[in-house]
Amino acid sequence: MWVKICGVRDEATAEFVSAAAPDAIGLNFHPPSPRCVEVETAARIVRVVPKSIAIVGVFVNASADDVLETCAACGIEWIQLHGDERPPLLAELKRRRPDLRLIRAFRFGADGLAPLVADLDECARLDAVPEACLIDAHVPGSYGGTGRTVAWDALAGALAAQPLPARLILAGGLTAENVADSIAAVRPWGVDVAGGVESSPGVKDADRVTRFLAAARGAS
Question: Which of 4, 51, 123, 160 has its CB 3.0 to 4.6 Å from that of 24, i.e. a possible disulfide?
C-alpha cells in the first residue's frame, strides 16, 4: 500500500515523518490552506527527506509556469493537481517536463466518476494520462483538506462499473482508526492523509503518523 503524508510544513516535521518511512510526503503550495509552505522552506524540506521517499508538490489552479518554477526551485518530480485543472494543462506539463509524474485529484460526489473518466479520456488523447488519480470527498466551495470521508461503498460501486485507466489513491478524512475499513471497501493502490495525522490544523503528530502507516500497511 502506497502511503502519502500530506501537508508537511517544516524540516523538523519532515524528519520525524521520514523516520516513519511513508512512500511520499506532500508539500502544499496552495496559499489559502493552513498547510501551505513557502518555496524556500519547501526546498529545505526536500533536502532533509531521504531519496527513497517521493516529494509531491500539491497545487490548486496554478499556471504551468508557476508549477514548473516551483518544482525546479525545490527539486520536486511529482505533482498533484488538486483544483479544476483541465487535461491540456497536464499535457503542457508533460511536454515541458517529461520526467514529471502527475497525480490528478478528483472530488467524488453526486456526478460519480463520469467527469473524471471524461477527463482521463481526453488525457489519453493528449498523451498525458496521470500516474495516479486521487479521489477526495466533494465538499462545495472546498478543494480538499476538509476531513470529510468519501462515500466508500458508492465509490467502490462506481469503480466496479467503470474501472479507471490509472492507479487510484484514496483520500478524505482518513485516520488510523478508519483507513483499514476504507482500504477493504475501495481497494485503492494508495492512501493519502493530512488532517488525520494532526494534533491541530497543519501540525503533524508523530504518534498518529506511525499508527496511520501501520494501519494502512496492515490492511493491504
Answer: 4
CA distance 196 to 68: 29
Q: What is the pLDDT of residue 219?
A: 86
**Which 8-state DSSP code applies to residue 196?**
G
Q: Are residues 185 and 153 in contact, defined by beta-carbon separation less than 8 angstroms? A: yes
Record the pTM: 0.94
What does the alpha-carbon distance between residue 78 and residue 101 come to, in Å, rounded to a whole number? Answer: 5
Q: Which three cell numbers stand for residue 70?
A: 516551483
Is the per-residue pLDDT at 140 higher than 60? no
Give the Å distances, CA to CA, from 14 to 24, 49, 59. 11, 7, 19
Cα three-residue angle 211-216-220, rounded to 5 degrees: 145
The residue type found at 58 is V
Q: Is the pLDDT of residue 179 over 60?
A: yes
The rounded distance, in Å, linking the Cα atoms of 14 and 26 is: 10
**Cβ-contact 48, 12 below 8 angstroms:** no
Nearest to 52 by CA among 72, 26, 25, 71: 25
| pLDDT reading at 125 higher than 60 | yes
- Rounded to whole angstroms, the maximal C-alpha distance in the chain is 44
* % residues pLDDT > 90 (the chain): 86
